[in-house]
Here is the input.
Amino acid sequence: MSDHPTNLMHVQRLGVLTQHELIVLVHADCPVCRSEGMSAHSQVTITHGDNSIIATLYQVTEDWLPVGTVGLADLAWERLGVEAGDTVRITHAPPLMSLGFVRQRIFDDGLNEAQIREIVTDIVRGAYSDIHLTAFVTATAAKPLSTREVISLTRAMIDTGDRIDWGVMPVADKHCVGGLPANRTTPIVVSIAAANGLLIPKTSSRAITSPAGTADTMETLTRVDLNRDELRKVIQTEGGCFIWGDAVDFSPADTAIIRVERALNFDSAGSMVASVLSKKIAAGATHVVIDIPVGPTAKIRNRAQARDLANLFKTVARTFGLALRIEVSDGSQPIGRGIGPALEARDVLNVLKRAPNAPQDLREKSLTLAGAVLELTEKAGTGEGLAIATETLDSGRAWDKFLAICKAQGGVFDPPVAKFQRPVNATRSGRVAAIDNHRLARVAKLAGAPDDKAAGLDLHVRIGDAVRQGTPLYTLHTESIGELTYVLDYVKSNPDIIELTR
Here is the structure.
C-alpha cells in the first residue's frame, strides 16, 4: 500500500443517489490510477480522519471531474463525513480472502462456522460489492444451505449486529414467510397482543419479492423509520410497535443480503430462516409465531415443503433457546382484498375498526395468529387464545391500541389513493376455480407497488365465487397512464391469472 502524496485527493460531491452501494469516481488520467494500477470496478479504500469506506471505483474521461479529485456519491460522502475542500486518501482495498469461501460454496460441500463468519463480517464492514453479494446469494440459493450452515449464518448475523435486551419475559414476535399477496395480519396481531399486556417489538421488512411488505404498508399510516431510542420509548409506552427493521439495523448483514435477493427475486429457505430468526433474536424476542402459507402458487407449494421448512425453523430456534410455534395456513389465494401498500392498509383499518365491509378472511386469520401468540406466551391457556383475541378486537381495545402505537410513532396518516383506476372484467361467465398468487402479485408490481404506495389492485372475487361475463375480477390502481397501459398489456397476455370454470 503506497503512501505516495498522489494518494491524497480532493473530494467533490456528485449528487448521485446509489441507495446502498458505495460508489466513487476519478478521472482516468489521475496519478492514483496510474501509480496504483486502479481500473474501473476496482474496490478501493477511501480514508478521511478516523472514517474509512470500501467503495467501487469508476473512471471518467471528461474534464468535469478534475484530475486529483475523487467524486463521491451521496452515500459515500455521508459515510466519510467529509466537507467541500477536504482531502481523502485512496488506496486499493485489502484482498478479500472470504471470497475464496464463496467460490468454495459453489463447488464443494459447504462452509464451516469460521468461514461463514468471515464472509458475514466482510459484508457488514462494506467490503462486498453488489457483484460479490450476488455471488454469495446465488451460491447459497442454487445449492441449499445445510442445517449446520443455517445455524452458523444465523449466529454470525446476530454477532455482527446489535442486540437489545428488554429485561422481561416473555417478549413476543410474529412473522410470515411470505409468498401470499396481501396477508397483512401483522398490524392486527400486534395490536391485539399489546392490548393484552404483551411486549411485542415488531420489526418488519420492506417487500423482497412481493408488492408490499409490512413496513411498506405501515408507512402509509404512520412513521416507521424509528431509531433505537425511539423504538425503546414506543415499546415502554405502548408495548408494541410497527417499525422498519433496517432503521434499527439489528442484522446489518441481512439488510445487505435482502437487498440483492430483492433484485434477483431469490428467497431461499436457509437464508430466509437465518434472516428471520437473527432479526427476532437481535430484537430481543423470546417467543415467536411463524406463519407458513401453503398453496399451489404460494412460496411454499405443498405440505411436505412446509414440514421441512417448519423443522428447519424449529431446529435453529431451539439452538438459540427461542420458543417457536408454527402455523401452517391456507395459501391458495390472497388474504384480504387490497394488494399494494395503501390498499392493504385500508383493509387493516377496516378490520381493526370492525367495519361492515372488512375482509373476513383477513380478520379470521389475524385472530388465529393472535390467539397463537397469546397461547405461546401463556397469556391464554391452550385452546383459549382465539376467544381472547376475538374479544380484544370486537371490544375495540385492539383499535385503541393500534391508534396509540401509531401516535407514539409519529401520528396517524390517511393512506393515499391512486390517480387512475381501471377494472379488469371477466371475459366469460363461470366460477372461480383458482387464483395465481404469483402472477397476481406481478400485476400489482407492474402497476407500481410497492414504490408507488397507492398502486396495486383490489381483488373482487374469491375461489368458488360465481361471476358473470363483464363483471370486475379486480381493479387496477396506478399513478400514471403509462403504468396502467403497461400492466393492461400484461393482463391481456395472461388471461388465466384468475381461472374460471364453466
In short: Residues 12 and 71 are 5 Å apart (CA to CA). The chain has a mean pLDDT of 92. The radius of gyration is 25 Å.
